[in-house]
Specification:
single chain, 131 residues, 34% helix, globular
């Protein structure tokens, strides 16, 4: 296999874009978004169906009730934040299947998907990503 194919296969094995997350969640796939930010950020706004598991609090103890047959997709604010990367690393080290959401909640909204919380927005899935 050539190096380019290997690079792109590896990249797709570890990250997901908002449209793939939305489609997977709505097609009954076993996918759970994980908001890796502090509870204050989650309560203000989060992806529908997401659980809040701040990366700073992740441990084998705090994740022991999570199912192992689910794909967890970590996210944070966006490309200027690496809470999702830290959360993905921890979950993977505990034996969970995990991917990171490209662009975080900001790209989720940019693609037109709704959010929940005290400052949640209803965008009506006016999807701007046509991939």
């Amino acid at each position: 296999m050539n190096a380019q194919v290997n690079f792109y296969e590896n990249k797709l094995a570890y990250e997901m874009d908002p449209s793939d997350l939305f489609e997977g969640m709505n097609n009954g796939e076993k996918i759970i978004p994980v908001d890796a930010r502090r509870p204050e950020g989650y309560s203000k706004e989060h992806i529908p169906g997401a659980i809040n598991l701040p990366h700073r609090l992740m441990s084998e103890e705090s994740t022991k009730t999570l199912a192992k047959d689910v794909l967890y997709v970590t996210y944070c604010d966006g490309i200027g934040c690496n809470a999702s990367t830290k959360g993905a690393l921890k979950l993977a080290s505990f034996g969970f299947k995990v991917k990171e959401l490209i662009g975080g909640i900001e790209w989720w909204k940019l693609d037109g998907y709704d959010t929940e919380g005290t400052q949640g927005v209803t965008l009506g899935a006016k999807v701007r990503c046509f991939c």
